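Researcher: I've been going back and forth with a colleague about how 3-oxoacyl-[acyl-carrier-protein] synthase 1 might be arranged in three dimensions. Neither of us has a model we trust, so I'd like an independent prediction. The organism is Spirosoma foliorum, in case that matters for your notes. Sequence below.
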Amino acid sequence: MRNRVVITGLGVVAPNAVGVPLFLEAIQQGRSGITFHQELADLKFSCQVGGIPPVTDAHKHQYFSDLQLHQLNSSGVVYGVIAGMEAWQNAGLSMPTDEPDWESGIVFGTGILGIDKLRESIYKVDQGQVRRLGSTAVVQTMTSGVSAYLSGMLGLGNQITANSSACATGTEALWLAYDRIVNGHAKRMLAGSCNDHGPYIWGGFDAMRVLPYQYNNTPEKASRPLSATASGFVPASGAGALVLESLASAQERNATIYAEVLGGHVNSGGQRGGGSMTAPNAAAVKRCIQKALEQANVRPKEIDVIDGHLTATIKDSAEVSAWCEALNRRGDDFPMINSLKSMVGHCLSAAGSIECVGAVLELHHGFIYPSLNSEDPHPDSSALINPEKIPQQLIHKDIQVVAKANFGFGDVNACVILKKFQS
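Model: Here is an independent structure prediction for 3-oxoacyl-[acyl-carrier-protein] synthase 1. You can compare it with whatever you and your colleague have in mind.
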């Protein structure tokens, strides 16, 4: 018997807000978190804007002990732990006892973790100071670092792991957690992902010339998904986290249920059929969406909102085309479609989880957040869908089903189907 899976806890560290209440307010108001960074200008980056969460010392001291903060120099660990702990507390779950919670686990992914700690360590090793690395250099830089921190803080005894699938990481983590619960291997899972910020992460993308350089004086205009004037994605960072739980467990403890996870799918285009290391195979994207609908037992016409990957590159129109093909819906029949990246930039491996939090909030509170800077929709997209399907302002609406997808370098895809909970 397959378990129904629901979402009972949320946590977020995003460029436009830290914490779910402020994040909800920010996305409803269409508040941008993209700012100019003098450090990038000093280092001669072409793109000198980015999204860095406004984390304060108070935030850190709320979730870390003084001992844990000593020599902590990994922004991804900070973001991931804050988001994960907020989600756990938001779910109303208890804190650890001496006995591990055998029924709860973690899937918390990342791309590159602890780049600043790694740089610091490399310098010390090269200078013959290996004994001064400290005791946490490894855990701050290993891919499973956030999962390890959180499992210790929460005392969880089920599967503790980390996934890494580039920009699809966060949505894939949610699907992996769902899969573990639906098949009865865990009662609840903390799913999420994070990404560091800074020049050592973002420099490679600047070198690839995929970042916008025209908006250094108007950073809030830089991220332009679905726009004819989009010129690249804005690099960003942060973390998102969601507590997934069997419906029986959630109802047993009378938990708040934000949404139900109906199903999903992950796949790869194998870097064939037009796919490459940096571009998706369109047939694989279509297949991923259709398989997700099939597993969720949802008909294409039931989709109310597409929370797209939509990075603000020339590939946005190709993504719209893939959705049209997968759903067999076009023009006025196409669902509403938006992109959180218009407010927070592209948070890389954290993108999927932060955007999943946004999608769940849309379902739970009944609204569609605006897709900023899309007032001039790309003509290739306008030829496929009614431009009015891209919300320019906040829309209050009781939506039932959201399709959330992300696609990553390496030609990997992840799609999940979320529904407003109905008992």
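Researcher: What would you highlight for our discussion?
Model: I'd start with this: The chain has a mean pLDDT of 97. After that, consider the following. The first strand starts at residue 5 and ends at 14.
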